[in-house]
Amino acid sequence: MQLRRALTHVPMIYLVAIFNLVAVMILSAHEGVEIIYYAWMGVFAIACVARMIMWMRFPNDRDPDVNPQKILRSLSVISVGIITFLSVWSVFAISTDMFANQMFIPMSLVFGSTCIAHCLACIRKAAVTVLFVGVLPSAVAMILVGDFDDMIMGWSMITIALLMIRFIIDSYNQIISGLIMRHTIWKQAHSDPLTGLANRRAMMSHLHLAEQSFANEGNGFAIALIDLNQFKQVNDNLGHDIGDELLVEVASRLNQSSAAKEIVGRLGGDEFLIFMPDVTEQEQASARATAYLTGFARPANINGHILTPSASVGIAVQACDGHGAEQLLKAADSALYKMKRAGETTRNSVGKFATPPFRKIA
């Protein structure tokens, strides 16, 4: 979330750098400074323009496998590097009396540093470093080698930098708190509060995305609808707290049995849904569903009660059993209850609870 917020400000960082470089180049040319002292700024400005155009043209062309921390670190290095170059040149200009009006260079740098620090407010260390590097060296140079007016301006710049650092820290805390709250709200809306699995809304979203992928690229998928056997008997005889603990245990075991890219969700009650991408045949889907059932059909000690969870399952394959999320869910639900009505079990004999379905540890 920090990365997404930071990336939206990247064009502004380049724009601020370009503006300051061009402004200093115009001033240098106006005051007759030899081009050798500021020619590098032109190259730097052109590179910034090219990079900004590329970034704005391909804003979503990002490698999903790249570590966000690595990108944030690179962005921090680039920003601090730009300000460091300008800061070194500013100190050089102040120390050598290169300009008649020396105020312009440090003030321009303060403006640029403040803007970039604001853009990087969600990266606290980078923002604070930009302010230190961009403001303090020029301010100290003005205090040490300037006249009385320069000295006053130097101290004013330091005061501005300190106030901005305080503002950046407060802004960072607010940003992070807001991002955490937004993430919490999203998680509450898309995950099951009891088991932590994806909830019905999240699973339907995954199915709709898979449906679009199938329509555009032909990527097949299948679903497995799992319903625990005799779960009501557990709730009625042992209580809902034991039933909830059993659901949590089953969810954990289903999650452990999931393969790469497969998603396990809880639709509600004792009903679970498994999304299986790249599964295009009934045999594949049946084998994966059996693996899930086998994975959790082991005795579990739930608060002193030995429970052996088991379930019935209904599978549906895209294009074979229907098109779209709703049709596939109906097909899987029909297959599930057909199995329940027929009293069938899976090949591994995990279709029913043992008799009795639970026992108490002595």
Task: Explain the overall architecture.
By secondary structure, the chain is α+β, with helices and mostly antiparallel strands. The chain has 2 domains: 2-190, no CATH class; 200-360, Alpha-Beta Plaits (2-Layer Sandwich), CATH 3.30.70.270. The chain is built from 12 helices and 7 strands. The chain has helices at residues 2-7, 10-30, 39-57, 68-95, 104-119, 124-145, 148-190, 200-217, 231-238, 240-257, 282-296, 325-342, and strands at residues 221-228, 263-268, 271-277, 300-302, 305-307, 311-317, 358-360. A hairpin with a 2-residue loop joins strand 2 and strand 3. The longest helix is centred in the middle third of the chain and has 43 residues, at 148-190. The chain is elongated, with a radius of gyration of 32 Å. The chain starts with a helix and ends with a strand.
Task: Describe this structure in a few short sentences.
By secondary structure, the protein is α+β, with helices and mostly antiparallel strands. It has twelve helices and seven strands.
